[in-house]
Amino acid sequence: MLNEKPGMIYNDVKKCVETVINYVGKDITFSMTLALGKPVLFINELYRRAKEDPEISLKIITALSLEIPKGHSELEKRFLQPLSDRVFAGVPEFDYMLDFREGKLAKNVELFEFFSKAGTYLNNPIPQQHHLSSHYTHVVRDALALGTNVFGELIGYQEINGKTIYSMACNPDICLETIRKMNVMKANGQKVVVIGEANNKMPFMYGDAVVEAENYDIILQGPQYDYELFCPPQNPVALSDHMIGLNVSTLIKDGGTLQVGIGALGDAIVSGLIMRNEHNDVYQEILKKATLTKRYEKLITQWGDTGVFQEGLFGSSEMFVDAFMQMYKSKILKRKVFDSIPLMKLINDGKLSADNIPSDIIDQLLEMKAVHTKLSAKDFAFLSEYGILKKGLKYENHSIIDGELSYSVDMNEETNRQKIKQLLGKELLKGFVIQGAFFLGPKAFYQALKEMSEEERQLFVMSAVEKVNQLYGGEELRTLQRKDARFVNTGMVASVLGSIASDQLENGQVVSGIGGQYNFVAMGHALSDARVIMMVKSTKGSGKNLKSNIVFRYGHCSIPKHLRDIVVTEYGIADIRSKPEKQVIAEMINIADSRFQKQLLDQAKKAGKIPMDYEIPEEFRNNLPQKISTLLKPYQSQGFFQQFPFGTDFTEEEVALGGALKSLKALAKANRLKLVKGIGLELFRPIPKSAHNYLKRMKLLDPASLNEKVLRKIVVFALRNVNTFADTPSFPINTTNHVKSN
Fold first, then answer.
1. Residues 457-494: pLDDT tens digits?
2. Cα dist from 335 to 29, 126, 316, whole Å
3. Residue 698 and residue 75 in contact, taking contact as beta carbons nearer than 8 Å
4. Are 113 and 515 in contact (CB under 8 A)?
5. In the chain, is it the N or the C terminus that has fewer CB atoms within a 10 Å radius of its CB?
6. 724 vs 726: CA distance, rounded Å
7. Average pLDDT, whole number, for the chain?
8. What single DSSP character describes residue 486?
9. Which domain holds residue 662?
10. Which CATH number fits the domain that encloses residue 217?
11. In angstroms, rounded to a whole number, what is the distance separating the alpha carbons of residues 243 and 249?
């Protein structure tokens, strides 16, 4: 045995790693969950030992190793360094990733990831060759098959009734299943170790995430483990993103269920939903101008909604992101669900609500045979747990005791059923508004969770992906909870036949990983009242490198065409489920950028997939960026469609510089001649006074060398190229993180 008893507390990470190596040996396959839930100090020490001792063979299996941004070019470094120093102060880095990026990963160490930040491993043969293509719900199976013998995760903790209780907090996703299966391995005599690294800055989350110390062989705990959590800033939301968000917002039914992911498109959807809920008159005005309600009247009437949220939404999402917190604050995320089949049936039938227990509730439960006619101790526990019976009651000798009064549990008698109504509670207990598997977000997101009361935080439950990402194992309950579900995911490329590529290029290069996308697509087709919504930006690149993301064919697909459902671009909605291919193609071309529509139609006709006399309807022939700009820009002065709808950690100068440098990079790819000419012209222009604050931020206001003088001119050109000086916004940029602006 590793220890005399599980749950031993260590405060010395070196001693912990030494103990692990002595127990399992020097052939170590260490697995840890994705994103925030990694035990940073443990893996850093384990990696240090492997570098020091070439006899150790260390395989690391994980995903999304979070990295503090540093930049590649000198301009990127000048921009990112002050930001990183400010936003990521106190956040430790992964030593194995620092070495990996520099090409110095120890030879006796291998890294295998099943998901990565999009595009970060392109054209890098080692991670391409080591990528694990695994659905999120299959990751545990695959990691154990590869020989995992040590597992670690970052956990939170707090005192409850005088005892330290732990929470998997940000990542019960694959951890619950891993520990359960590794316990079986231990029982079979295999040498495996489970490590918990306890950090008191981690919000203590409820649901299935709550665990006791005995789940871990060793828990690292002490002041040195209370480091700052990784907190990525919000991504900017472009006008085209906002338009996609508006389109999707019309498909979300009040009283339904929503799954969205991290990033600009997720923020755009929620921004659209908040506008719909809090500024419905403006929202309706924009929908009318965009002809959305006219073009998609049948679809929206049957499957969507454009009114304010009365019942609200329930969140069922592998990733609990800040966007859900914004919906909660805006009273959109408020539909409570319960882990009880009979209660969910009554709620869905409109016979019960979370905040009002009807006087005939016992009669209803008896009719459903959810409780016995003679209430048992188990029935009493169920009724008490969910607040149907008020607090303070006892079950003794087949009676319910309320102080000195005693009530019969024989519900065959009408008088007894009438009397028990005096014992009913006022509202249901143990409801929750979101069920997530992992979370990641800005610092203010973590702080909001930490500052909540225990009662309020229990509305946000965390569970394993085996529960969140599928129906298996609890089909009836999960179907009832996830009514009118909208599973919203992102794709890179869509074919006109409805297949989606979202994780890999057609040459085999992995962009990110499949994650849970297929899980949600499969679930969306399994639930009769659900829809799968795939968001795809209509184009990528610019200038000569502009390409359509709606294509006739593509050499890879993450979601095949037989699982097609709804595809949304900034130009509209393609409802392509249960339709013949000629109609699918027509609808997909309708939402493509108009600069590519003729080519797509010609290809379809040549392949005999659409009638030769078919023409694109006139209303879909003006799918161009200026159409969106003309529609949405006038509303920016009212505070809508902001670049950072929920605030940002960036300063105003950083927002402008970030956009300018990004455009500069795009220009270098799209039109290098224009770039060279522009910079050449800038060399002979004076520095505008309005550029001084930006140059000061980049430490280029007073250049000390010829190189810095050139860099200063490049920055000025970049700012001028995006009209920073000529077209100063007439509305303020919200740079206070998470101040709701619309």
1. 999 999 999 999 999 999 999 999 999 999 999 999 99
2. 42, 46, 11
3. yes
4. no
5. N
6. 6
7. 95
8. E
9. 652-721
10. 3.40.1080.10
11. 10
Distance of CA 688 to the CA centre of its chain: 42
Together in a domain, 531 and 582: yes
Contact 235, 296 (CB under 8 A): no
Using a cut of 0.90, tell me whether the model's pTM lies above it: yes
Is a pLDDT exceeding 70 seen at residue 186? yes
| Distance from chain centroid for Cα 27 | 35
CATH number, domain containing residue 481: 3.40.1080.20
640 falls within a domain: no
| Over residues 53-59, mean pLDDT | 98
CA dist., res. 588 & res. 494, Å (int):
9
Q: Name every residue whose Cβ is closer than 8 Å to that of residue 15 and which is 6 or more positions away in sequence.
A: none
- pLDDT-derived band at 244 (thresholds 50, 70, 90) equals very high
Sequential DSSP letters for 209-245: TEE-GGG-SEEE-SGGG-PPPP-PPPPP--HHHHHHH
Token look-up 């030769």 returns 612
- 440 with 351, same domain? no
Q: Are residues 303 and 264 in the same domain?
A: yes
Residue 234 falls within a domain, yes or no? no
In a domain, 2, yes or no: no
Last residue of a domain, one of 167, 198, 225: 225
571: Cβ–Cβ under 8 A, 6 or more apart, which residues? 243, 538, 590, 591, 592, 593, 620, 623, 627
Calculate the alpha carbon distances from 671 to 55, 73, 545, 664, 676 in Å.
52, 19, 8, 10, 9
Domain end among 381, 403, 423: 423
> For 179, what's the count of Cα atoms within 13 Å in the CB-facing half-sphere?
23
Order of strands across the sheet that contains 394-396:
394-396, 399-402, 405-408
Is the model's pLDDT at 734 over the cut of 80?
A: no
Query: Is 617 in the same domain as 661?
Result: no
DSSP run (H or E) holding 314 = strand 314-320
Residues 465 and 530 placed together within one structural domain of the fold: yes
The Cβ of residue 530 has, within 10 Å, a number of other Cβ atoms equal to: 22
- Which residues have a Cβ under 8 Å from the Cβ of 505 and sit 6 or more positions away? 122, 511, 556
Residue 501 shares a structural domain with residue 450: yes
pLDDT at 282 over 50: yes
In a domain, 740, yes or no: no
Distance of alpha carbon 199 from alpha carbon 41, whole angstroms: 11
263 and 138 within one domain: no
Q: Is residue 736 scored above 60 in pLDDT?
A: no
Instruction: List, for residues 487-534, the tens digit of each pLDDT value.
Output: 999 999 999 999 999 999 999 999 999 999 999 999 999 999 999 999
Q: How many domains does the chain have?
A: 4
CA distances from 102 to 72, 97, 98, 105, 410 (A): 12, 9, 6, 8, 74
Residues 20 and 166 in one domain: yes
pLDDT digits (tens, 9 = 90+) for 667-696: 988 888 889 999 999 999 999 999 999 999
What average pLDDT score do residues 697-717 get?
Answer: 96
41/492 Cα distance (integer angstroms): 35
